[in-house]
Amino acid sequence: MIMSSSQRNVDFILEQIAGAGTVSARRMFGEWGLYCDGRLVALVCDDRLFVKPTEAGREFLGEVELAQPYPQAKPWYLVAEEKWDEASRLAQDIIGAAGGLGLSAVTQAAREFTKLAREGESHHQLRNAAQTVVGEHVRVRQALIHLYPDVA
Q: For the chain, which has fewer Cβ within 10 Å, the N-terminal or C-terminal residue?
C-alpha cells in the first residue's frame, strides 16, 4: 500500500539540497515535487527520493537505480535513503541530474545572442539577449558558490 510522504522527510531533503540553489517543495498528486531555481528536479513519493532523469544526470551520478515514483510513471533515479544525509553530495546530485550547473543554458543563451547579432537585430534585442547570457552566468556562479562555499 502506497502512503503519502511525511512533511518531515520532505523538509529534511530540502535542508540537505539547499546548496543546490533556491529549493522548494510543492504538493503534486498527493506527494511532493522538489524544485531548484524554479525547475522540477526531484520527487518525494512514498517517502522515497527520485531525481529527474537526464543525460547529464546519468553521466554525473554514474551507476543509478531506476524506479517508478508512482504507478505508470516513467522511471526516475532513485536515491537511497542512507545517502540523504550527505548534504553536499545530494545537492551535487540534484544539480547534476537537473542538467549540470546550467552551463547548457549559458551556451544556448550565447548562441541566441550570436544568432541575433548575425541577423542584424536591433540594439534593444541584442541588449536583452546579452542580459539573458549574463543572468544565466550569474545563476551558474551562485550554484557553484552554494555547492563549494570554501572555494568562493
A: N
For 120-140, the pLDDT digits (tens) are 989 898 899 889 888 877 877
Alpha carbon 140 to chain centroid distance? Answer: 12
Check whether residue 70 and residue 128 sit in a common domain. no
Q: Which residues contact 134 (CB under 8 A, 6 or more apart)?
A: none
CA–CA gap between residue 150 and residue 131 (Å, rounded): 28
- Residues 109-128 as b or e (16 or more Cβ within 10 Å = b): bbeebeebeeeeeeeeeeee
Give the pLDDT confidence of 38-94 residue by residue, as tens digits: 888 899 999 999 988 877 666 666 677 899 998 999 999 888 888 887 766 777 767
- Do residues 53 and 76 touch, judged by C-beta distance below 8 A? yes
Q: Which residue has the cell 542584424?
A: 120
CATH of the domain at 16: 3.30.1460.30
